[in-house]
Amino acid sequence: MAIYDEMQNLANEILSDPDFKQNTIEYVRTVPGSGPVDNPGPSSQVITELNATARGAQYKYVSTGLAAASDLQVTSAIHPDITPDVKDFIRIDGQLYKIQQIIPRPAAGTRVVWTFIVQRGQATNRTVS
Predict the structure, then answer these.
(1) Most exposed among 11, 79, 90, 106, judged by the fewest C-beta atoms under 10 Å?
(2) In terms of pLDDT, which residue wins out, 123 or 10?
(3) CB-CB contact of 92 with 65 (8 Å)
(4) Phi-psi bin for 47: left (phi > 0), alpha (psi -120 to 50), beta?
(5) pLDDT value of position 41
(6) Which residues contact 33 (CB under 8 A, 6 or more apart)?
(7) Is the pLDDT of residue 127 over 50?
């Protein structure tokens, strides 16, 4: 097992530990309706609970323009069923946040964690059950 595989397992173990884990953080993917183009039907949502933590965005992201001062930074263990996309959302304790940036750690090779920069805003006022 390569060092990054071991680090990925360790990150998942730490972020899922009940003593370390914050409340509910979920990945919300909206799947468009499967009907014809002129009437695809209602969209559905796939919600996956993450082993993750949330905090205010770091100054380095705000100062370089990757985040606003009011944005949050979510660090998540890798989930095998998720391929992150900026079209999706993160739900933190029931509040929906739009993914603004996805920063894989490390940038190449086996990912250990994902860092999401998320923002609460007008696009996130939709009801998600």
Answers:
(1) 106
(2) 10
(3) no
(4) beta
(5) 87
(6) 40, 41, 42, 43, 44
(7) no
The pLDDT value recorded for residue 19 is 82
119 three-class SS: strand
What is the average pLDDT score of the chain? 89
Residues 76/99, Cβ–Cβ less than 8 Å:
no
Amino acid, single-letter form, for residue 23? N
106 prior amide bond cis, ω within 30: yes
Contacts of 97 (CB under 8 A, 6+ apart): 72, 89, 90, 91, 118, 119, 120, 124
Q: Which long-range contacts (CB under 8 A, 24 or more apart) does 55-59 make?
A: 57/117
Contact 25, 47 (CB under 8 A): no
Structure tokens at 36: 């014809």
Name the pTM for this structure.
0.84
Which CATH code of 3.40.30.10, 2.40.10.270, 3.90.226.10, 1.10.10.10 fits the domain covering 3-32+44-121? Answer: 2.40.10.270
